[in-house]
Amino acid sequence: MFYRETGQFKTSYGADQQIFPIRQDRIGVGLVLAVAFLVVPALAGEYWFNAILTPFLIFALAALGLNILTGYAGQLSLGSAAFMAVGAYAAYNFQLRVEGIPILVSFICAGLTAAGVGILFGLPSLRIKGFYLAVATLAAQFFIVWCLTKFPWLSNNSSSGVISTPTVKILGYVFDGARDKYLLVLAIVSVMALMAKNMVRSKTGRSWMAVRDMDVAAEVIGIPLLRTKLLAFAVSSFYCGVAGALYAFCYLGSVEPDGFSLDLSFHILFMIIIGGVGSILGSFLGAAFILLLPILLDVLLPELSSLLHLQLQGSTVSHIQTMVFGALIMFFLVVEPHGLARLWQIAKEKLRLWPFPH
Amino acid sequence: MFNRSRKIALMAALVAGAFASVPAQAAEEEFFMIPSYRVGPYGANGNAFYGGFVDYLNYVNMKGGINGVTATWEECETEYNNAKGIECYERMKSKARTSAGPIHTMSTGISYALIDKTAADHLPLAMMGYGRTDAVDGSVFPYAFPLVTTYQMQASAIVKFIAGKEALKGKKIVFLYHDSAYGKEPIVALKAEASLNKFTLVEIPVAHPGNEQGAQWQRIRQEKPDWVIFWGWGVMNQTALKTAQKMGFPRDHMIGSWWAGSEEDVIPAGDAAKGYMSATWNVSGKNVPLIADIEKTVYGAGKGNVQDKGKLGTILYNRGVSAAVLSVEAVRRAQEKYGKGKAMNGEQVRWGLENLKLDDARIKALGATGLLPAVMTSCANHEGSGKVKIQQWDGSKWVLVSDWIEGNKALIHPLFQASAAQYAKEKGITPRDCSKEK
């Protein structure tokens, strides 16, 4: 009942081709964006911006990047953190070495640099698939981190390899407060998420899915494998690169190559597995789950233990937190192997028929 | 009905009264934010360090507080993870508005990420023997304090120690390092020392985690160095010692950094560690009066923080105690200026850290002789000491083989200033004029 599209007639090609063809979706997305842009900045405190919302958005963007590659084009990758590193260091170097370059342009350039590196490391995907490809992308993970430590030029000869990002300034306005940075990240992430949503239902996205489902068949119906796969690597790395630049400029403020370790790549991979492989919404849900649940447990468990009069040591709480987190991951994967996004889809189906399911 | 609601109101008033009366009775409190790690890959190190830190705060409270001000603290688990560290900092920050002791993260990554944030929030950040070393220049980094000594000064002190044993001219020294920010920082200092003292420096990196070093030691065997200066971390330390034994390199010509000189590093290497030397700025053992007193007072009252009492007196435990000593002294010093018996806020503690006068007499009065060197900070020198001792593992314990050695300040500090100036330029910071600071 709530989700029924009856009565929504499309009378033009434009109406038929819009990103969200159903009115309820349009209203929903509009509401979410309005809340994120208007209500949240008015209500949230500095802690929420700095420690929760900004990293959530940045990781959602990185997860989105990986989801394009793994979820839509079917190419398993373990190099997302490395592409983030490329983005972060590239943005830093563009800011440093090109006089007067606007920050947004250097973010785009960072994305393009990451895309270039992504294409390079995507080349093996033409010959190998699945787990073997994952191992090949692992090479990117190690090579890029090694490269960033090896060549001091990339970190402006910093003796430690750590880069400190300059202040973010757009058209003379300095983004230094937590709220400003959140809004900047939110704007970039929403634009890129809408672009991704649009892309995956275009010809490009459909050829990615065709390649994912069966590449031989895709080739037979005339989809060029080389171009499609490399495009997926390029677009995915672009997203990861921009996420990396935001991670450095708007979240941490200073990054070192070791920070972009394999652990981070796994984190991003878990985000899309939990959230839903092959779903834009899933990237956001997965990032929220992986990032926010530990914090929630961290806050709740000590309260709970004092409520139950259990004298728990700090380290015990951390151990319990890890265990509960692991158990919840397993629970969700057992109950819904297709991720949290699938739950939302089921809910939508139910809402469509409610209250008369038959 | 009316009766019952009156009863409830009365009870509510009583409860509210009980809560309201607490702050009125409570003395002044100084809040210490402790972003610690007790689980994860480095949990064992964190347990010892933060155990010592909390034990000393407890000890101070049991002895009447900081001029009557009670130390309070809250821990938050960072797991040595930068993102978690920032989350912890942001979460606890609101509690540090009215009073804030120095923040010790024991992680270079987290402290790098917090440098800008703490400066913006006016909270003092201490990095004892890690972190951003050019923060020694306080004119650019007012809120960051690489206290006691830095990697560069330590490397310079190690070179000085070797020079005390034999003439350096024409000698060859291998620098074997963990290929990360931590391992790379001393290179610039060692290069400067090499050109000054005319010895050859060979740099050999080891990739993290460093549990396989065959190739590196093969190379060392070919190079035939006179000394190996060693910047290891975690499992890399014991591996290096074992491989050195296998390759026949004398361990008494290997000198490690202070992160390669704890009991946890040498005991797993067993026999191979005998004779190995490392730098340290705090001694191990319980024969420091303060450590013995903490064991008696705090653990006697059953308030000890470390569960495994065998950790007491280890290098890292003692380092935690010395970190707490410096933090408490900074608060005390701030109280001298801003009012004794009062809680000090971040800005005031920052002044205390910048004007530390922890001389030998004061250290002796604290019962901490030998635990740490004298620390005298100023706006231009946030390091305050730059001294280390060299210790040698005799197979069962660390034995000191030198007195305090100070690195070549005239050579190293200009490097910091140059690097800080570059940072100021990148960030658009106008450095303070240190001559105008009081």
Number of E-state strands of chain A = 4
Structural class of chain B: alpha/beta
Kindly, what is the distance between the CA atoms of the first and last residues of chain B, rounded to a whole number of angstroms?
Answer: 67 Å
Task: Give the terminus-to-terminus CA distance of chain A.
Answer: 12 Å
Identify the quaternary structure here: heterodimer
Uncertain regions spanning at least 5 consecutive residues of chain B: 13-25
For the largest beta sheet of chain A, what order do the strands appear in spatially? Answer: 1-4
SSE pattern of chain B, N- to C-terminal: HEHEHEHEEHEHEHEHEHEHHHEHEEEEH
Main β sheet profile of chain B: 8 strands, mixed
User: What percentage of amino acids of chain A are in beta strands?
Assistant: under 5%
Q: Give the H and E element order of chain A.
A: HHHHHHEEEHHHHEHHHH
Please work out how many helical segments of chain A DSSP would assign.
14
CATH superfamily label of the largest domain in chain B: Response regulator
Can you characterise this structure?
The complex is a heterodimer of chains A (358) and B (438). Chain A is mostly helical and 358 residues long. Chain A is built from 14 helices and four strands. Chain A has a domain of 241 residues. Chain A has a two-stranded antiparallel sheet. Chain A has a two-stranded antiparallel ribbon with strand order 2-3. Chain B is of the alpha/beta class and 438 residues long. Chain B contains 14 helices and 15 strands. In chain B, the strands form four sheets. In chain B, strands 6, 7, 8, 9, 10, 13, 14 and 15 form an eight-stranded mixed sheet that branches. In chain B, strand 3, helix 4 and strand 4 form a beta-alpha-beta unit. At the A-B interface, helix 3, helix 12 and helix 13 of A face strand 2, helix 3, helix 4, helix 6 and helix 14 of B.
Question: Which properties best describe this structure?
Answer:
heterodimer, A: 358 residues, mainly alpha, two-stranded antiparallel ribbon, 72% helix, 3% strand, B: 438 residues, alpha/beta, three-stranded parallel sheet, 14 helices, 15 strands, 46% helix, globular
